[in-house]
Design a protein that fits this description.
single chain, 152 residues, alpha+beta, 5-stranded antiparallel beta sheet, 3-stranded antiparallel beta sheet, 4 helices, 17% strand, elongated
């Protein structure tokens, strides 16, 4: 196909394939937040955002961040990396304690986030611990959670 142009249908298939792979990546990293608006509201919002050099998504994300900060919502998100049952905490110490109470044999690390920034990780090792290793939780011959890694 080198040196030839794609037909309209081929362009559409390529665009759909790229879009599908992007969607798969996004769904692995983000969650959707459907929003019902009156007719014309989103169009008007898009125009205002464009006039101000921004996008609706950016402005909605800014609003959510500001709103949660103003209402002192628990800031640290505990991700057990299972797809079900995560948690929230006010302090890193509380997050680590709650994480340790909720540990299960998942073969996944536990991650603590402050917003989008990773602040701590409890690594999973799918082997027996060696002598002298820090073991937070042990699951027989199947593996263990090691020592907390705290990021600055």
């Amino acid at each position: 196909m080198i040196g030839t142009e794609l037909s309209g249908n081929e362009k559409e298939v390529k665009r759909v394939t790229k879009h599908a792979s992007q969607v798969k990546h996004l769904r692995g990293k983000y969650v959707r937040f459907p929003l019902d608006l009156k007719p014309g509201t989103l169009d008007q919002f898009r125009v205002v955002c464009e006039d101000n050099g921004t996008t609706p998504t950016t402005e909605i994300k800014k609003f959510i961040k500001k709103f949660t900060e103003e209402h002192k919502m628990k800031q640290l998100f505990i991700d057990f990396n299972t797809g079900a049952g995560n948690g929230w905490a006010d302090t890193l110490e509380e997050a680590m304690e709650l994480a340790e109470e909720g540990l299960a044999y998942t073969q996944q690390p536990v991650t603590v986030y402050d917003g989008e920034r990773e602040v701590a990780r409890l690594p999973w090792y799918g082997v027996e611990p060696e002598e002298g290793e820090v073991v937070t939780a042990h699951f027989g011959n199947y593996g263990f959670y090691g020592e907390w890694i705290i990021y600055d």
